[in-house]
What does this fold into?
Amino acid sequence: MLFREAYALGLPSQGTDVAVIWDHLYLFLLWLSVFFFILVVGGMLYFAVKYKKSSGAKPKYIVDNHALELFWTIVPTILLLVIFGWGWSVYKKMVHAPTNAMEIRVIGKQWLWNFQYDDGRVLTNEVYVPQNVPVKFVMSSEDVIHGFFIPNFRVKSDVVPGMFTTIWFEAKQAGEHQVFCTEYCGASHSLMLAKVKVLEADKWEAFKRGKPVQVTGAKPEASLTQLSLPEQGAKLVAAKGCNACHNATGDAGGIGPTYKGLFGHDVELADGSTVKADENYIRESIMTPTAKIVKGYNPVMPPFQGIVNETEMNAIIAYIKSLQ
It folds into this structure.
């Protein structure tokens, strides 16, 4: 592993075997480019100095050099064929998932990622996968084109409305791995983030049984119990993608209402009625957001029923209450 990390110096962590072979090809192309840059620019400077114009000098007539022409035709052709064959080999490993790969459905929407498991569970902006087991993501979009990219795994694919695209990986490195959206998809594109959380075998079995697990390894997540309740809520709001549509600054120009000054105040709804923003209102707005639509906003928020548990709900409400 130390050799791999040193070899990929300057690149993201190598979380899969595909990342290792991808880095080998990338670094080969990089150093090949450096070699030819030095060769071409160095040769140009050398000849510019050696054959600079002199007073009264006449240029010598140069005839064809067939050996040189063959050399600079054959050698680049061989290099291009090597690069093509190597790249094709890496590409096949990246796109052809093993037949026994575990499938997880991924749905992209402005501006969050939902992950659906075969047992019916749906997670938002986080997905748990087993270590050393091939996993295939079957992806689709509810609105516009998104780009699903896991730098540590060197896998990326566009997520396109009306069709399915796929990526696969076999994670070797336990811990958290960042997901980015790499296709500009609107105002909160940069906040459309998620985490792939790779679990060791025993923790994966615990996760399948519905037990809480602590992610260790690469970029371990700080324990929420070390923070105050409002601080836990702020962390959860960020982790679950709520900041993509809501804000804590009082700005009314977002996709959803601001949190600041919300708790304890009257909220005007789309039907003309008003409701006090207490604990029950906030809870209902998170679990079934279309139950009461705030005036001036569209009913685009997904339900978080089954995604936010009671402990997390208390932390989120405490966070919103603190923003007065």
The two ends are 49 Å apart (CA to CA). Residues 17-50 form the longest helix (34 residues). The first strand starts at residue 102 and ends at 109. The chain has three domains: 2-95, 102-208, 224-321.
